[in-house]
Amino acid sequence: MFKLDQRLENDTFEVAEILDCKVLVINNSSVPWFIIVPFTEKTEWYQLDDSVQYNINSIMNKLSVFLEKEYKVHKLNIATLGNVVKQMHIHVVGRFKTDPAWPAPVWGNLKTKEYTAQEKEIIIKKTLKVLEEIEL
After folding, report:
1. Is residue 121 part of a domain?
2. 127 burial via Cβ count (<10 Å: 0-12, 13-18, 19+)
3. Mean pLDDT over residues 59-76, rounded?
4. Where's the HIT domain (predicted)?
5. How many structural domains comprise the chain?
6. Which of 42, 43, 64, 97 is the most exposed place for a label (fewest CB within 10 A)?
7. Which CATH number goes with the domain that contains 17?
């Protein structure tokens, strides 16, 4: 049975469940930062079936286009680190040359600035619209 890692649960809010994945947002409005968590016990990308990789890639691509169009990001950071949170998860982070951590990594380099309830509602609504475009 799938259980979201407690650290991810504490640091995020949920947008959707799609293609056997949870799509989350890091609750720090300093940068737009999504997390994709596939419903799997596997911890490494190469261990995932091709179909799971395809589904994640579909979500990742939609989120990437959304970040470029909606936020006009300068760079996308996409990574599967898992050094602290072992559960398979993919970061899709929009970066700006003006963000507080630039050009360093966002991990450990941002002060927390939680989304307001209204900001959460807006990002969820916009992201759901983008995810609806994925062919199931």
Report:
1. yes
2. buried
3. 98
4. 35-102
5. 1
6. 97
7. 3.30.428.10
Q: How many H-runs (helices) and E-runs (strands) does the chain carry?
A: 3, 5
Domain-embedded: residue 12: yes
Contact 124, 132 (CB under 8 A): no
CA-to-CA dists, residue 55 to 21, 34, 77, angstroms: 8, 16, 19
The tokens 């179909």 sit on which residue? 51
pLDDT (0 to 100) of residue 128:
98
Neighbours of 22 (CB within 10 A): 20
Q: Return phi, psi of residue 11, to 5°.
A: -100, 0
Q: What integer pLDDT is reported at residue 1 of this predicted model?
A: 81
What tokens were used for 135? 């062919």
22 within 8 A of 14, measured Cβ to Cβ: yes
Instruction: Pick the closest to residue 113 from 52, 46, 33 (CA basis).
Output: 33
pTM of the model: 0.96
Look up the domain containing 96 and give its range.
Answer: 6-131
Q: Is residue 136 pLDDT above 80, yes or no?
A: no
